[in-house]
Every structure is written in structure tokens, then in C-alpha cells.
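Annual report, structural modelling task.

Input specification for the AN7 complex:
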Amino acid sequence: MSWKGVVDQYRSRMDTLPEGCPAVTLLEGNTPLIEAPRLARELGLNARIYLKYEGLNPTGSFKDRGMTVAMTAAAADGAKAVICASTGNTSAAAAAYASRAGMKAFVVVPDGNIALGKLSQAVLHGATVLAVDGSFDDAFRLVTAIAEKAPVTVVNSINPHRLQGQKTAAFEVCDVLERAPDYHFLPVGNAGNITAYWMGYREYQRDGIVDSLPKMMGFQAAGAAPIVNGAPVANPETVASAIRIGNPVSWKKAEAARDESGGVIEAVTDAEILAAYKLLGSMEGVFCEPASAASVAGLRKLVESGRIEDNSLVVCTLTGHGLKDPDNAIKVCPEPVRVPAEVEGALKIMGL
Ligand code: AN7
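The model returned the following structure:
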């Protein structure tokens, strides 16, 4: 049977959607859960590691899962326009799904701080891109203020439909593994995704589909780690622009997910993020964007400090595709080697 997209695939679990409304979908979800044995060996971990590769969603990130539900609800409600603040991926998803629904999209982004791939998606899909001189947090404040005065539906994750969609990734993990993992590693920015996964896992356990729950392991970038520091960060800074957020909307819910699951929310440095980013690409053939690699950077850190039990089942979500932000890859990897267009000369340089 062909995949129907997350709304119709999990319609009976979409707690917030009005009954029977037609889905606004790009057939998102059903992303691969890729085993990573070389990574496990490299980390020195005697455990099974799986990568939930969310970069293979239609717009290249996990945001499509929430956006299909938010846009389905907005369309059912007769909305004509949507708005969001974004570090990039939410804006790409909002723009794409709005165009599909025949709605206008306004996306508010921190000027100069979103990856080019994401900006190109927003403009190509016809959104009006508003660039603010400030951080994501400033953009988000502007969005909520605009929505109080004008007929636009906010599709940031304060919109409860978003988390309903995003929880389906946890369902898919369990559907494939036929159990819940022991640990689930995620990058944390606005903290919606860790909240949504926890919601999904608990729902499957409540309904007897799985009989255990994972520890939720969230990782912020060290320069944008308000939850870890216990205070908002006024000027967040990190190479992982997707999670450059100083005051997460789902802060309290993420702490609840951490505490109820017996997990952690900790920080990883930009150097640790980039090392994990390169490792995933060079050892497992999986290209994710820097923010996504925070999950694997976190795993590595915990393995190194002996905090992951042997023989565990570990899942790391890779939230966005590496092609969103190719500049970063070019910056951190060696340049192409110039060779003459002639065999002997080329072989010499190749060392063969
Ligand atoms: C690749 O697009 O917040 O903790 O505005 O794009 O649920 O916020 C993006 C977040 C991780 C963090 N990885 O997830 C936005 C935005 C990637 C992301 C996160 C984001 P949350």
C-alpha cells in the first residue's frame, strides 16, 4: 500500500484535527531509519545505533510533519494566510505547504542568519520573506504581535497541530523497530521536537503498542543553550544556525520530557557538532545539516563519559538535510585537488 502522508497515515491519532478535513500534504514522513554500525564502532559503543533521517522529508527537514497538520487545520478553518518566525526550516516548510493549500505565507527570519538552501525554498515557494535585524527570538516576538492585529494563522510550534504532526516520527521509529529505543538523541532549538517525540512514545506505550519508553536526550549548541544554563540567552551564537535560539517556546515541556523519561538536556560545542557532522558524512554516507549533528555529538560525549549502557538500542534523529547548508560542508572540508587532464599527472597526484 502506498504511503499517504502523516495526517492520513495516523489520522486516528491526530488529536487536534477536526474530523474528515482533507489533508494538505506532500506525502511527508516514512523516512528511513538507517543502522549505523561503523559509527557505533568509531564511538566504541557496543550497541545498535539508528539514524532517523528526517532530511528525506519533502522540504528536507522534520518540519514537514508538523506543517502538514498545521496547514490542514488552517485550511479547514478557512485561513487565507499563515505566518511563522524561523531559523530556516520552518519557513521552508510553511512556504511549501502554504503554496499547496493556496494560502499566502509570511516568514520572518533573522537577517543574514539562515542557510541559503532554506531561504531559496521560502522564496521559490512564493512566501514573503521578512528579514529582521535580530535573532529568532526577536522574529518570534514580532510574529505573535502581528498575529494579534491581523488575520494570519501562526504556524510556529505554539500552534498545537505542529506537535501532533511531529509526534509521528516516534510512531515510525517504533513501527520499524517493533519496540521503543532505550535512548533517543535529538538536537534542541525551540524544543518542540523533543516534546513531540516524547508525546508520541508515551501515546504508543499508553495504547500497549510498545512496553517501554526511551530516555529523551536533548542537545543544545553551547552558544545557544538556555535550557542547560537555566536562563534565556540574549545573543545566541552557533555554527548550527537552525538551533540558534535563546528562549525556546517549548522550554518547560522539554524539561518535562527530560525529567519524566530520565533523560538529559546538555550542550555540545560547535567543534563537537562539526566533528559529528563530518563523521556522519564520511563514515555512514549520511549528509545532515550541522544542527542535526548535535544529536550524534551528544551521543559521542555521553559514550566517552561512560553514560550509555552496553547493548542498548539508540536512535539519533538527523533533523535536516545537509544540502540545506552546503556552504558549511565546503568550509570545513578540504578543497578539490587540481589535476592536469592527463592520466600520468593525475595518477601521481592521486598517489596511485
Ligand atoms: C535542522 O526552523 O526552529 O527543538 O525555525 O531546523 O523542535 O526547535 C528549526 C529547528 C533541529 C530544533 N534541527 O528543533 C525553525 C526552527 C533542525 C532545525 C531543530 C531545528 P526544535
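The pocket of AN7 is lined by residues 61, 63, 86-90, 187-193, 242-243, 289, 291-292, 319-320 (CB under 6 Å).
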